[in-house]
Amino acid sequence: MMGPAHSLSGAAAWLGVGAAAAATGYGMPWPVLLTGALICAGAALAPDLDHKAATISRAFGPLSRWICEIVDKLSYAVYKGTRKPGDPRRSGGHRTLTHTWLWAALIGGGTSALALAGDRWAVLAILFVHLVLAIEGLLWRATRGASADVLVWLLAATSSWILAGVLDQPGHGSNWLFTAPGQEYLWLGLPVVLGALVHDIGDALTVSGCPILWPIPVGRKRWYPLGPPKFMRFRAGSWVELRVLMPAFMILGGVGGAAALNVI
């Protein structure tokens, strides 16, 4: 799928988690619901860091382009080093390592560890990176062109500072779900994991499929392109994505958010 659909699916997924949490007695304070939805929307773009034309690869200027090159080469090296006889030869690392459940788990765990070890400045950095991506993904029409980058960064930095301040207030969710002393913001890894997995599932619906299960082998392939039957798949950017899935994500996200806040 394309960036906007990925971001919408990520936000909708976290709002759905909020609804499920409310139904099971672990309701999210509204700052957690809002912040998690934004982080998940941004994290749903992150697996495409292995593609030089992706939103995330352009979002932070030369720095993200440089990281993209490293991730692409790393992913390609891992693919070559672990492929089985049934896996096809390829010339790049797109839709390999960063599109797996293992990558999602590692990046989510790393986010939680960083939030615990780095305290407030680490939390601000996590928020800033994901809010930049969320803005780029959700407001894609308004953020086109290099001239908009600085404005996006300023908006993300300001919003991160405000959200961190709100979350720090008693009862606003810095210790949501993990309540033991010293576990504040441990939950930040959850929307990151979810966003990456939602991205992978979205890509699995397209023609190429997605090797979500790696490194678990399937038959003669270790990079099995998981997906529905061929006739149910679509091309990225097609009318199915733009006219069916994106409106559906908006509706589901709205229903999930309303349920999470006990409005319905």
Word description of this protein:
Helices cover about 60% and strands about 0% of the residues. It is built from eight helices and no strands.
From N to C, what is the helix and strand string?
Answer: HHHHHHHH
Oligomer: single chain
Indicate the radius of gyration in whole angstroms. 18 Å
- Helix share of residues? 55-70%
Strand content: under 5%
Overall mean confidence score, pLDDT: 93
Major beta sheet summary: none
Distance between the termini: 31 Å
Helical run tally: 8
Spatial shape: globular
Task: Return the structural class.
Answer: mainly alpha
Spans where pLDDT lies below 50 across 5 or more residues: none
Strand runs, count: 0
Please specify the SSE layout and strand pairing.
Elements: H1 3-23, H2 30-43, H3 55-58, H4 62-82, H5 101-138, H6 149-168, H7 189-204, H8 239-260
Helix pairs in contact: 1-2, 1-5, 1-7, 1-8, 2-5, 2-7, 5-6, 5-7
What key phrases describe this protein's structure?
0% strand, single chain, mainly alpha, 264 residues
Gist of the model:
The chain is mostly helical.
